[in-house]
Structures are given as C-alpha cells and as structure tokens.
Amino acid sequence: MTATALMPPFDATTQATLLVDEITAALVNARIYEPTHPRVQNSLAAVRTTVRRLAEETGADPVCIATADGMVVFQQRPLLGASIGAARLIDQLQQWGAGGIAFGAAFETSELAEFFAAMAARPQPGTDFTHLNATLTTRNCRHVSLLAPFVQGGGEAGDDAAMPMPGTVKVGLRFYQAVIDLLQNVTVSVCRGGRIDFAPVQTQAEQLLKQLDDKDEPLLGLARQDQYDAFTFGHSVRVAVLSMNFARALTDDRDLLIRIGTAALLHDVGKSLIPFEILHSTQILSEEERRQMNRHAELGAECLLCHDDSDPLAIAAAFGHHRAPDGSGYPRTVHDHETDVVTDIVKICDVFEALTAARPYKQPMSPIRAYRVMLAMGDKLNRRLLRRFIEVNGVYPIGQLVELDDGGVAMVRAQGASPLQPKVVLLDSEHDQDLVEAEPQILDLADVACAGARAILRELTPDQARECLDRAGER
Ligand SMILES: [Fe+2]
Ligand SMILES: [Fe+2]
What distance in angstroms lies between residue 395's CA and the mean position of ligand 2's atoms? Predict the structure, then answer.
C-alpha cells in the first residue's frame, strides 16, 4: 500500500503568496547562514518547487514576482498578505533599482543559489540590477534575474503592472511592514545569539496603539487578511493589534497598554530558536517535533530573562501563553503557577488569531466559529476574559466582510450599539470609490434598522470574501 501526499487545490494567488514568503525566507537564510547550510538548501528547494508549480499551472514563463508602490504584485494583482511580510524583499529590490524577480521555468537549483547569494549582498555604489544580472550571467545563472523597475503608464516589471490600491490600505500596509521588518531584525539577532533592542519594539507598540486610536486606520482590517507569512511575524503583529485593542477596553493606562503590545509582539520570540523545518512544516508534527516546537515558550522566556532590561510582563507572556488556568498546556512547572491577566489576554488573542488566520495547511475560520471553539475550550482559557473579548472584538470584527439583507456587500469598520449592527463601509460597485477616498462614508446599521431597513448580516465564505476583495481591488 502506498501513501500519497494530498495537494491542496491550486490557487495562483495563494501559491504566489507562498512563493513571496519563500523568497523572503531564502533571503533571510542567505543573510544568516553559509550557502551549504541545510536551511539555505531547504529554502532554495521550497522556492524551486513553488516556481515550478506556478509555471506549470499558469503557463507563465518566466514566473515574475514584481513590486510597485511598496506592494508585491503577481500577474497584475497586488498581493496584500504577501506584501505585509515582504518589506525587506521590497527594500532589497529597491536597493538594486529593480522592479522584481524573473524565474525562467528552466532554471536549475544552482542558479537559485547564485541568485540569492548575490541578492543578499549590498550593491556597490554606482551599480544596479543590470550589473547584478551581468554578474549572474558570468556565474552561469541565466534563468533567474532581476527585472527593470515598473514605470507607471509605460514599461512594466515583467508582465506585471500593479492595480491601484486604496490610500488608507497603503498607509496601514506600510506601517504593518515596518513592524514586521522590526520583528525580522529581532529574529535574526536572536538566531545569531545577539541581543534584543527593546526600545524600537516599544516604539512600534506605541505606534500601533496610536493607529488603533485613529478609527479610520485599517489596522484591524489588515489584521484579518487571510494570507500567511513564512516567519509568523504577521501572526505576532496581529496578536499585538488584537491584544491592545482588547486591553483598551479594560484599562486606559497607556503605559500599560504599550507594555501589553510589546509583550504580544514578543510572545513567540522563542520560535526564532526552533528548527526552521519544524516551524514551517505543513505536515502534522511527530511527537518529537511537537515536543521541540512546544519548547518555544520556555526558550522565549529564557531569552528575555537574559536581558536586564526586559519587561516581566513580556517574560510572563512568552512563558505562559500556552499554559491554561486549569494547569494543562506547556511548559509544565513543578509547582502551581498562576498566569497573570496580561498573559491571559495574549493567550486569548493568540488562539483567536491562529483560528481565524489562513495557514499553508488550513482555511481561515470565521470569527463566530472561532468564538464557539474557544468557548468550548472551557477552562483552557480565562472564561471571564474570553466573554469580554468577544464583546469587544464583536460578532463581526473590524475588517470582516458581510452581506446585507439588500444584497450589498460591506466591510465592518467599527462596532455599533448592538453586536449584530456594526458600522460598515459599503463595497458595492457604486460605492467602490469609498475605498479610495480619504474619508469613506461609514454606515451605522443601527440607524438603518431604525429607518425600517432590516439589516441582516451573514458571514461570507472564504471564496466569497476573496471574490469581494478582488472586486474592491484589495488583494
Ligand atoms: Fe506560541
Ligand atoms: Fe503565538
């Protein structure tokens, strides 16, 4: 009897997003390790597999990953989820004056190795992507090269011209990218046995809080983007956004809120010390792999404890965010160990994010289903806090796409007087302009209900949500 690995159905956007994550991973690994290191080799193999699959399924040759206006673009569509985690990739392409990367379908793995080794180096003054391409050719790398930059209204990077993005999404995206870039630096530093500089992490937590205060900013909407990133940085940022948004309803102590945000940003810092293959495995982990993976909590706490200037709240959250009030979970302790409320907040947001985000191996769960799952977890979560979290986050969280009873499609922008009647922005074709205007018109469904127009909301399936985002040009 033979076993065949199940392949998920092909989706070009998902595969291109995966490819961007893999390119980012390959670049980070090329910075940290020698070219012969297994992590470098594995990340090159991952890029090769995904490029081949994209070439086969879409017929593209070369497969082009382009950048334009701070976004990653594949076949004329901005990849929002991929762009969130790709700040460094975009930055490196800009340093070379390039508009993207072209992978000719016939490339060899040795060519990829040459390419990433060359890309990881900084360009010499006066050189650009043409010099890099010329150098690559002399090293027998003929099928992987950098593209010329995309020029608005004229030439383009590969075959990819970017669709325009809504202004507010761009602002939120750039900010998101900056936080993820910071977490990448923290991870690289921890991997190399270096120290964590907490000041910029606290500064970013403060900035996140300011952005949350500004209701027009789409941070919580971005927190619901159903695409994933290779290094789980996006996960940590989303947990921080959710944690601070929740904690704002519990306290108005801004210093404490910033400490909570910092603790949430660093809660999974121990994952920097987990083998790459285990961290990014798309298979069910073996018992031994699971045991190693679970060590990230104690490794993270240990790492933070090695710093004189680390915050006890951050140490506690890193250590305790997989422990349960009933004593189950990990790490196990010899004596009773009560978790603090900040750890409980981070834990609830951690579980919610994990359930509602897409991963390479699973579809995102709707918030309502996630709440049901979390309520069914009983004493594994702090029940009192969980109920409050559901109240604050809403039945329809910010960023959720919903369909109204008149068939209109809307995105939730704020909670309303009733959990079932949030404030929304309509995304119908005649309202598409709302997304690109500086101040989109917000519709309070409670007012609509008073006027007699019954506003029934239902959740969109992931496929419907994708279709709507496509229509609104948000992906
Ligand atoms: Fe964790
Ligand atoms: Fe986590």
Answer: 22
